[in-house]
Amino acid sequence: MEIENPEAAIGDELVPLEDDSQNLDTEMLLLEPNHEVDMMTLSTVDLQQPQPKRRKKKSIVWEHFTIESVSPDCRRAYCNQCKQSFAYSTGSKVAGTSHLKRHIAKGTCSVAQRYQERNQIVAYSAPAKSAAASEPPRRRFRTSHAAAAVPYLSFDADRSRHEIARMIIMHDYPLHMVEHPGFLAFVRNLQPQFDMVSFNTVQGDCVATYLREKQNVQKVIDGLPGRICLTLDIWSSSRTVGYVFITGLFIDADWKLHRKLLNVVMETCPESDAALGHSVAACLSDWNMDGKLFSVTINRPLADAAADHLRALLSVKNPMILDGQLLVGNCLARSLSDIVQQSLARNHHIVSKVRDSVKYVKSSESREEKFDELKEQLRVPSTKKLAIDDPKHWNTTYEMLSAASELKQVFSCLDTPDPDYKDAPTPEEWKRVEVLCSFFKPLFDTAALLASSSATMNAFFHEAWKILFELSRCSASEDPFASDLAKFMRGKFDDWYWKGCSFVLAVAVVVDPRFKMKLVEFSFSKIYGDEAASQVKVVDDGIHELFREYVTLPSPPPPPPPLAHPAHAAEDDEADGARAASSNGGSELGDFDAYIMETTNQMEKSELDRYLEESLLPRVQDFDVTRWWKANRMNYPTLSRMARDILSIPVCTVPPWAVFDATGKEMDGYRCSLRPETVEALECAKDWLR
């Protein structure tokens, strides 16, 4: 911005310049107030001589602006935050700093405004002037009332404490980080006005955050229209104690499936039969869920004594649906992982040779280039890339074996261009690798479905059956290696998962209108042979018995009737009384009315029978079974309540990102050093905030 008179505004002072055309240095002339300048002397300065050292700019505005040259005779001041430019000097004319102060202090800067909304920074404010410096300047720039009305940015210490607690919870930072010297120095430089909290204070803030979020979760659970299912995930620790992570799954009134971590209970003897029962009882009491529990899924197979102990404990305060057949189940992801790990251990020598071969190729870029060149020469059609596996995640081992198996021809010829490559797998070993991959594939596909979606239990009946069917078929193979491995894997899958969960899976697929009992009949005929009819009858009888139990359960309260107009209230009461008298027809016919209703209900088909007799829906890829039941809940009011609870039964206890874990979870040493209540608050709040 140019100034009308040939004056240079320095800070709040305007210093006159006699000749605008003089070739003065375009640096700002920092002059003290009332300091007289001999302009004739300035005009005769030899610009080739070294300029005297200029004083450092004193105005605080230069903490927010940077001067840059845009041409030999023009310099502009750039805002360090929003990068907007302002006039600084043109030739001998030098602008002042008042317009720069307004940009920062009056809220014109867009970046500063965004920070203001977040309450994270303190705005620039001009320092207070002394009495001598408060005299009005000879010339001032106009300031609009709108700019002056913009409030200054403020610092909120309480919000900063709240955000530190959220940061620690969401990212698993140690509580003691607030006492680390490096973090203290960082916060002190970032915001000197913030008084850093202590370990005890931030621990209290984290617990307070947990309690606030817990109230919201409690409201959701109290308003559930159906029941809730629990998963128990037992974590080990280096201190011989265990931690039981209890997660609740339920479908809300809008038919949306929810998964929330409810409790983390420390157990001193996690292997005992009573440990899991104690943890579940504590969860039911903490969340006031007596009578709402539908099923429990555990991440490890239970002994018969432990399962019976858990059923007996839970039956005290919860109605036993189907005599507890749905109460305890095993984790599908954990079962698949254990089967793969034991199968790999049985063939450790072969897997190690393949892993060493992959490591050899991936150890240097030149070896990898030779491998790729040989692959092109041999015209191997595989598009898979070699990758070294991580034994902690069994999917990486499967993918390594699968890629190496498709590239076995390249490995077999690699010793020709690279004589250093030795100890390649033999053709017989490569054949066994192919068998391993073919047996692992259905397990991998099922685990991938668990990891990639929030599919309900009805989607996993066919997946589990497919695993059992393929392993049963391969058990009759003429190849001794394939037959022995298939029998081993089938026995483990049958013992660890299918025997205990096939009934629950079958019941879940029955409430899928695309399959109903038809898929159960077809699948059982393939794996049970002559015993298929008896197994189908078990499922059919079980689902009918379950439906009869839901018929006897109290229905949810109906919506309140519309309010009657006061003018018609008396007339409505009289009409209701007349209808009641006429319908009774006298007290002697009351028993007759009950008889008519009873015999009529016996003659009519139940909701379940009507549902099973209707034709199957077309099998579409993106079918949402919960949405279908939501749309048809008026046609099947009782059956839809039963379907809601069945579809909320979890098939695994671990979150999607831990489906392929080869080992169980272990609580780190720092968490073990904290109080059990603090550990529960941190873990649960992290799940809820996520």
Can you tell me the overall shape? Answer: globular
Give me the secondary-structure category: alpha/beta
| Overall pLDDT confidence | 82
- Largest beta-sheet details: 6 strands, mixed
Number of helices: 26
Strand fraction: 5-15%
- What would you report as the Rg, rounded to the nearest angstrom? 38 Å
Distance between the termini: 50 Å
Low-pLDDT stretches are 1-49, 119-134, 143-150, 558-587
Helix content: 40-55%
Count every beta strand, where a strand is a DSSP E run of 2 or more residues.
12
Subunit structure: Homodimer.
InterPro entries: hAT-like_transposase_RNase-H (IPR025525), HATC_C_dom (IPR008906), RNaseH-like_sf (IPR012337), Znf_BED (IPR003656), ZnF_BED_domain_contain (IPR052035), Znf_C2H2_sf (IPR036236)
Domain BED-type: 56-109
Keywords: DNA-binding, Metal-binding, Nucleus, Transcription, Transcription regulation, Zinc, Zinc-finger
Describe this entry's structure for a reader.
The chain is of the alpha/beta class and 690 residues long. Among the domains are: 64-100; 158-330 and 667-689, no CATH class; 332-441, no CATH class; 454-553 and 624-649, no CATH class. It contains 26 helices and twelve strands. It has helices at residues 39-43, 98-105, 110-118, 145-148, 157-171, 181-190, 199-222, 273-286, 304-314, 332-346, 348-362, 365-378, 394-406, 408-413, 427-452, 461-474, 480-510, 516-528, 532-552, 566-584, 590-603, 607-613, 625-631, 637-647, 669-673, 676-689; strands at residues 7-10, 13-16, 65-71, 74-79, 85-90, 93-94, 228-237, 242-251, 257-267, 293-298, 328-330, 666-667. The strands form three sheets. Strands 7, 8, 9, 10, 11 and 12 form a six-stranded mixed beta sheet that branches. Helix 5 (157-171) crosses helix 26, helix 8 (273-286) packs parallel to helix 9 (304-314) and helix 19 (532-552) packs across helix 24 (637-647). The relative contact order is 0.09. Mean pLDDT is 82; it is low at 1-49, 119-134, 143-150 and 558-587.
